[in-house]
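thoughts on these tokens:
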Amino acid sequence: MKNKGFTLIELLAVIAIIAMVAMITTPIVINLIQSSRENAFKDTAHSLVVAAGTYQAEKQALNEDTTLYINYKTSSDEVKSQLKVDGVLPDAGEFELDLNGKVTLALWSDSAHVCVVKDKDEKTIIVNDNITNADSCTIANINKE
């Protein structure tokens, strides 16, 4: 009678192949996840910029002050909620809207471990790789560069 099944050598070869595939794909998947987190946070920052335009239009219609400054680490929840956006708000950083509707921001995400920045004269939001912690993610630090 012929034995059916796999030999130990065959099982070890399959395990070795699976381990090699895992070693190759794991860094790729981790980088893909990090990139997705960064892009999602950039989208959140863009939503805040759009919400700032709405905020300013509402305030102008009521003849109220249209400037806004939010420090996401120290401001009250009432101040943070003035810009109505869906999604997760930044964990730290600053957001500033001037009288001319120009937005400057430096926002930090703990989950993505990234700081996104936008100067008032720029149109795009970028990831600042030079800022590596929440305490350094401030408007003053992006203006120094």
Notes: The longest helix spans residues 8-61. The radius of gyration is 24 Å. The helical segments are 8-61, 77-80, 139-144.
